[in-house]
């Protein structure tokens, strides 16, 4: 019953996810797309030098991983179009103002569209300053 409620809640929602290249973040991205393919959009905030390199990191470190094999199988030939329709990789950093997102049009879109923020960006080294 509770799971059904969560699925219903995620339907048609736009979500910002940080830390998506990390251990927890990539599992979260895969799970949302697999159990609720009717989610509207996922923005993934990824540390990168620009939008293209954020997209490259997304393909290499998230959607291209073995973890996505079930979803890849379920989508078949539509996997790539499903990912490009649902997932937007953004270049940014949670320690910067406005999360390091510079383009004003993109910032405006994000402010208007995002309904949920899932923050999994973290430094997990115990000896970090
Ligand atoms: N792993 C577990 O078993 C576990 C269990 C319970 C809770 N947690 C919690 O879940 C969170 C994530 O843990 P994890 O194991 O997934 O860590 P992780 O594998 O080290 O991933 C950390 C993520 O945060 C990103 N990140 C770090 N600094 C950032 C910044 N300044 N701006 C944007 N992104 C940044 C990293 O991006 P880069 O790829 O660019 O470095 C990476 O995607 C932590 O709060 C942790 O305590 C983890």
UniProtKB/TrEMBL annotation:
<dbReference type="GO" id="GO:0035336">
    <property type="term" value="P:long-chain fatty-acyl-CoA metabolic process"/>
</dbReference>
<feature type="domain" description="Thioester reductase (TE)">
    <location>
        <begin position="17"/>
        <end position="128"/>
    </location>
</feature>
<dbReference type="Pfam" id="PF07993">
    <property type="entry name" value="NAD_binding_4"/>
</dbReference>
<dbReference type="GO" id="GO:0010345">
    <property type="term" value="P:suberin biosynthetic process"/>
</dbReference>
<dbReference type="InterPro" id="IPR013120">
    <property type="entry name" value="FAR_NAD-bd"/>
</dbReference>
<dbReference type="GO" id="GO:0102965">
    <property type="term" value="F:alcohol-forming long-chain fatty acyl-CoA reductase activity"/>
</dbReference>
<comment type="function">
    <text>Catalyzes the reduction of fatty acyl-CoA to fatty alcohols.</text>
</comment>
<dbReference type="GO" id="GO:0080019">
    <property type="term" value="F:alcohol-forming very long-chain fatty acyl-CoA reductase activity"/>
</dbReference>
<comment type="similarity">
    <text>Belongs to the fatty acyl-CoA reductase family.</text>
</comment>
<keyword id="KW-0521">NADP</keyword>
<keyword id="KW-0443">Lipid metabolism</keyword>
<keyword id="KW-0444">Lipid biosynthesis</keyword>
<keyword id="KW-0560">Oxidoreductase</keyword>
<protein>
    <recommendedName>
        <fullName>Fatty acyl-CoA reductase</fullName>
        <ecNumber>1.2.1.84</ecNumber>
    </recommendedName>
</protein>
<dbReference type="InterPro" id="IPR026055">
    <property type="entry name" value="FAR"/>
</dbReference>
<dbReference type="InterPro" id="IPR036291">
    <property type="entry name" value="NAD(P)-bd_dom_sf"/>
</dbReference>
């Amino acid at each position: 019953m509770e799971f059904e409620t969560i699925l219903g809640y995620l339907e048609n929602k736009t979500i910002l996810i940080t830390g998506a290249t990390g251990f927890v973040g990539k599992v979260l991205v895969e799970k949302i797309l697999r159990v609720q393919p009717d989610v509207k959009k996922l923005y993934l905030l990824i540390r990168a030098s620009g939008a293209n390199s954020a997209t490259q990191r997304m393909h290499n470190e998230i959607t291209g991983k073995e973890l996505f094999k079930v979803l890849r199988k379920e989508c078949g030939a539509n996997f790539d179009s499903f990912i490009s329709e649902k997932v937007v990789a953004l270049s940014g950093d949670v320690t910067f103002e406005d999360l390091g997102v510079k383009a004003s049009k993109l910032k405006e879109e994000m402010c208007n569209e995002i309904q949920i923020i899932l923050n999994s960006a973290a430094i997990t080294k115990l000896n970090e300053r």
